[in-house]
Amino acid sequence: MRIICPECGFSREVNEAGIPAEVSFATCPKCAHRFAFRPAGDEGASRARPAAGNDPKADREAQRRTARRAYQQGAAAGGGAALLSPGGSVPWECPGLFMRPLGFARTLTRLVRESGAFFSGINPFSSIIPAWIFLLLCSLPFTIYFVLQAREMQVVIAGAGEPVNLFSVVTLAELIGAPLFLISFYQLIGSGTIYCVTRLLAPERVYFRLIFKVCAYAATPVLLLCIPAFGLPLVAGCAVALLFVGLRHACGLSARQAALALLPFILINFIIFIQLVRVAVEAVNHAPM
Q1: Which residue segment(s) compose the domain that 233 sits in?
Q2: If you average pLDDT over every residue of the chain, what do you get?
Q3: Which of 221, 229, 247 is nearest to 122 (CA)?
Q4: pLDDT tens for residues 222-281?
Q5: Residues 38, 96 within the same domain
Q6: What pLDDT shows up at residue 241?
Q7: Residue 170 has what pLDDT?
Q8: Does the structure show a pLDDT above 60 at 214?
Q9: Residue 101 φ/ψ, nearest 5 degrees
Q10: How many whole angstroms separate alpha carbon 82 and alpha carbon 71?
């Protein structure tokens, strides 16, 4: 069986008998483009697919185990997965680069310059901890900026007549921990929302770990929040654009499916943004003159 990349024309002969029946997508080792090399209902795949049992849950687990083996062995295109390491195409998740400045810098560079190839090669079966740490590190500059701004913040405590400095009410650890906790909680809720929708659109190609990683790396523009010229709407727009690219390349969704998967997420964020604006306006109106 010859598989040809529609993006760059690279081709390779593979043994069709060695390709699991559930695998219908390949990643080109030359340009990293992810594409369907056979339709889901292909007769050859149907002949190779084992008969479904009476337990749907056991069948799904068997399919996941087969997909995991296919990814790890590069069976999707006769080695076309071209894994750099267990971290896939993400330098930050490679054993030799994890928690090192070089791994962080290479990941940012690849994410900006080759976002499609970056998301296409994410390992959907490895731990989500590196992606979560990467997100927190991206959020750290904004957290430091927030703490520095908090030095000048005055708050009014119920029962107290005069406003007091925020640092006299909360500790430094609480000021640093609160934004990081909220970002982690927001990441979990956002990933869960997108995962639920994508499970309806493409259940055979979606894993929660994969969606979590896509959302975490797509949130990289949060680095720009500490720069006054980049407002929250602009950063949010960049993050949504990266999410769209990530869902298309990592999960193999069409443009329409990716847009549908993002719609509930965007609506939730819009509601949160409106509420934040209302709170800010009320705080300004009730501020002492």
Answers
A1: 91-285
A2: 75
A3: 247
A4: 888 777 777 777 888 899 999 999 999 888 888 999 999 999 988 988 888 788 778 767
A5: no
A6: 93
A7: 75
A8: yes
A9: -55, -35
A10: 10
- What DSSP element (H or E) covers 26? strand 25-27
Co-location of 70 and 149 in the same domain = no
Both 161 and 203 in a single domain?
yes
Residue-wise pLDDT for 55-86, tens only, equals: 555 555 555 555 555 544 443 333 333 333 44
> At residue 150, does pLDDT exceed 70?
yes
Statement to judge: residues 40 and 136 lie in one domain: no
pLDDT digits (tens, 9 = 90+) for 162-195: 676 666 777 777 778 888 888 889 899 999 999 9
For residue 39, being part of any structural domain is answered with yes
- With a CB cutoff of 8 Å and minimum separation 6, the contacts of 25 are 34, 35, 36, 37, 76, 205, 252
Question: Tokens in use for 132?
Answer: 């979560």
Instruction: Answer yes or no: is 221 within a domain.
Output: yes
**Residue 129: inside a domain, yes or no?**
yes
Token pair for 280: 């800010």
Report if residue 216 sits inside a domain.
Answer: yes
Q: Which of 18, 42, 74 is the last residue of a domain?
A: 74
Euclidean distance between CA atoms 102 and 105, whole angstroms: 5
- Measured distance between the N- and C-terminal CA atoms of the chain, rounded to whole angstroms: 76
| Alpha helices for the chain (secondary structure H) | 43-48, 56-73, 101-113, 115-120, 129-150, 172-201, 208-218, 232-250, 255-285
Q: What is the DSSP string of 38-87?
A: S-TT-HHHHHHSPPP-S-HHHHHHHHHHHHHHHHHHTGGGTSTT--SSTT
Which residue in this structure is represented by tokens 């990441």?
A: 187
Q: Are residues 99 and 70 in the same domain?
A: no
**If you ran DSSP here, which 8-state letter would residue 155 be given?**
E
